[in-house]
Amino acid sequence: MAVRKVQVFLYGSAINLDVLAEAGLKKRAFAPAALAGFDLIVQPVANILENGDGVVFGILANFTHEEIALLTSSHTQALTGASYNPEPVIVRTRGGKIVPAITYLSVDLEPSFPKDGYIDRILKPAKNYGFPRWYLERIEAFRAPAE
Q1: The pTM is what?
Q2: How many CA atoms are closer than 13 Å to the CA of 72, on its beta-carbon side?
Q3: Largest CB tally within 10 Å, which of 35, 85, 101, 117?
């Protein structure tokens, strides 16, 4: 019996292939995509909040449920202490295809500035995927102020 895979919309540092490899996830095809109705925040790690006028850019990929658990529980929760819960969403790929997917958001992150280097783990792949300049500037704005 084939292992079932589901479409997952990743955002924040999860768009970084090095982060996925650290979580034990193998390379696969990714499609840049956008999620309307949400905003990205980084406090101290990436999360999304509902906002009717917002948009979050990320990547769409197929994962097994075991791989999703590796990323959300074993890796993300271990690094942040926060839990991420599944949320059904509709995303639009760069080619205009509308796709149902699962994404993950947290309701228990304690607001604070991200650790050094965290923003760069989002910005580099975001630039490589060709996300809009205004979105790159939004990500940059979450960087902790210089002391």
Answers
A1: 0.91
A2: 22
A3: 35
Average pLDDT on 38-42 reads: 95
Q: Which two tokens stand for residue 133?
A: 């300049």
Residue 41's contacts (CB-CB under 8 Å, 6 or more residues apart) are 47, 48, 49, 142
**Domains of the chain (ranges plus CATH)?**
5-140 (3.10.490.10)
Are 62 and 132 spatial neighbours (Cβ–Cβ below 8 Å)?
Answer: no
88-97: string of b/e by CB count within 10 Å (b at 16+)?
ebebeeeeee
For the chain, the farthest-separated pair of C-alpha atoms sits apart, in whole angstroms, at 56
Strand ranges inside the chain, DSSP E? 5-10, 31-42, 46-64, 85-93, 98-105
Q: Is the pLDDT of residue 16 over 90?
A: yes
The token duo for 121 is: 């783990």
